[in-house]
Amino acid sequence: MTIKLANILTGINRTSEPSSGSMILAHDLYRAMPETHTTFLGREPVDRTWTAAFDRLITLLTTKRPQGSAFDVYIDELTREVGTIIEKTRPDAIHAQYLGFALSLAFARTAGSIPIIAVAHGPEVMAAERSARERESLNEVAAASAAIVAPTAVLAERIDHLTGHRFTDRLTIIPWGIPLSDARTRDQPPTRTGPLSLVHAGRLDDNKSTITAIEALALSDQPHHLTVIGEGTRREHLEQRAIGLGLSNRVQFDPFLPRAELWSRLPNYDAFVFTTRGLEAFGLVLIEAQAHGLPVVYSDLPGVRETLGSTGIPYTPGDPRSLAEALDEMGQDFHQRKDLTKAAFRNARRYDITTTSRRLRELTLRFTF
Length: 369
What we know:
By secondary structure, this protein is an alpha/beta fold. The chain has helices at residues 21-31, 71-89, 102-110, 123-130, 132-144, 153-162, 210-219, 235-244, 259-265, 284-291, 302-308, 320-332, 334-348, 353-365, and strands at 6-16, 36-46, 56-59, 93-97, 116-119, 147-150, 171-173, 197-201, 225-229, 251-254, 271-274, 296-299, 313-315. It folds into 2 domains: 6-177 and 353-365, Rossmann fold (3-Layer(aba) Sandwich), CATH 3.40.50; 180-348, Glycogen Phosphorylase B (Rossmann fold). The chain starts with 5 loop residues before the first strand and ends with a helix.
């Protein structure tokens, strides 16, 4: 019997390369999705080594104008471009990434009878909580969607609140995942006490609050060392803050790393530090760290708590002293670190990308064929 491939149109309105968590997730998600033909809409420049996950990649040509008085004109132009693409590709379903952002709005206005599965990532929810216009956009896409996917119950609840509980029955929780088979663990479990070799990886902006980790080192009783991996608007400020606190020899800044290189380095550290202080949709980098055997110290946010359960050490978000105390406790007790390493492996095994892909495909098929 011949199985019909599900023809899926999706995309993220960014440069088509693995430069952010959502882009890496999309790459993993559709590479692992069985029996589908995926067309992905992205932006130039395109990393051609990254396109293998998609059967076809189309670069959007409409000039981005996401803010200001030209926004409505921008959306109209993008909608016309997307409408033409839909006519040519004739998808069975549309996966609208980022519930309410520009590309999702264009999908919502051109899909017609094609079912839309909206996938929430978090930043669009934060934007909708700050801005009435963003909230209107989120509601428009939600109304046009057959289903709305969130990676945690916490994020689903916030979407439910923003949409006035009108689409509660459309919300589905599908946790994110990583390609666990590619993870490499450390050779030896922790066997010593003392200062920790710490790593923090991610976008360097206000919400990620990397400053909390740097200031925690200045308050800790032990001379822990921190490697910060990533780029962002706050990088220069973070570097200057480390110098001002006399931590130049204890804080190292490395640029954004391709995931294969990041994963090859993770087992060399003693623990992972997660510092986000606002909304976190899931905390995928925590699962990456755990899959490589790293104990994690994390800001105690509801969404992260849902992802980790009791498999990490929490501290008060945005509180350097609380983080310093957690790091010192971990540094003094290698038995705790050993237990956390075992718990990390167990927890990471719950989040394989093949499960995420299978569940999203099954949800999609409920509204097609």
